[in-house]
Amino acid sequence: TRTAVVIPAAGRGVRLGPGAPKALRALNGTPMLIHAARAMAASRAVSLVVVVAPPDGAGEVKSLLDAHALPERTDFLVVPGGETRQESVKLGLDALPSDCGIVLVHDAARPLVPVDTVDAVIEAVREGAAAVVPALPLADTVKEVEPAAVPGEPEPVVATPERRRLRAVQTPQGFDRATLLRAHETVTDDVTDDASMVEQLGLPVVVVPGHEEAFKVTRPLDLVLAEAVLARRRL
Ligand code: C5P
């Protein structure tokens, strides 16, 4: 069976500050989305990359991918995205050919994930897991709070989950394709990652080791870190 990757890249990236859609911002002169697509195509197991573009930017994204060649073994498709990340992922899934039995979902906002992490996720799906997430232990202790009604007001702490049992999850997340499709057809709640939809079906989701360099570029400081990682790789 073939492995495809869906890259949702239709977000505006408001937290990064004003400018182009986040996926199209440059890291060392190359759009983040191109770094992310190359990171996926670096795995020999990946035969198709589906990029979900901003609804009004599909043409631009197609030209970018044409201009920055992926390896010859990797096909790509561009489809327009939706209002939410979840809708964007679903639109990407709908574009997959039927011979793709394994699908990865990878944020354009994680442009620097190493190929070993991608391969580890694919391997775990091949070995039979319905859903696989790369994840890391947390450095910070996490508190659950009662969110303030008025922004800036002190927020009461509700609980402190045991840090040892918590993981920060990254992408690519890997799935048996039929399972992820069923999750999208069944779960209507807002979610912040794809695997949680599979959890809601009552199916097991497993964790494999993530990587520090798979961090999400969200805020301005993350751009500085991403460019430093790229500079170090060139050494
Ligand atoms: O907003 P967040 O950082 O969680 O977005 C994660 C990924 O989802 C980004 O790559 C973003 O481009 C994508 N996204 C999307 N469609 C949306 C919103 C976000 O493809 N409507």
From TrEMBL:
Catalytic activity: 2-C-methyl-D-erythritol 4-phosphate + CTP + H(+) = 4-CDP-2-C-methyl-D-erythritol + diphosphate
Pathway where this protein functions: Isoprenoid biosynthesis; isopentenyl diphosphate biosynthesis via DXP pathway; isopentenyl diphosphate from 1-deoxy-D-xylulose 5-phosphate: step 2/6
Keywords attached to this entry: Isoprene biosynthesis, Nucleotidyltransferase, Transferase
EC number(s) from the headed UniProt entry: 2.7.7.60
Iron in keyword set: no
Cleavable signal peptide: none
The keyword Nucleotidyltransferase belongs to this UniProt entry's keyword annotation: yes
Site (Positions MEP for the nucleophilic attack): R163, K216
Single GO molecular function: 2-C-methyl-D-erythritol 4-phosphate cytidylyltransferase activity
InterPro entries listed in its UniProt record: IspD (IPR001228), IspD/TarI (IPR034683), IspD/TarI_cytidylyltransf_bact (IPR050088), ISPD_synthase_CS (IPR018294), Nucleotide-diphossugar_trans (IPR029044)
Annotated site residues (Transition state stabilizer) in this chain: R15, K22
Pfam families reported for this sequence: IspD
One Gene Ontology term from the biological process aspect of the record: isopentenyl diphosphate biosynthetic process, methylerythritol 4-phosphate pathway
UniProt family annotation: Belongs to the IspD/TarI cytidylyltransferase family. IspD subfamily.
Function in brief: Catalyzes the formation of 4-diphosphocytidyl-2-C-methyl-D-erythritol from CTP and 2-C-methyl-D-erythritol 4-phosphate (MEP).
Record-given protein name: 2-C-methyl-D-erythritol 4-phosphate cytidylyltransferase
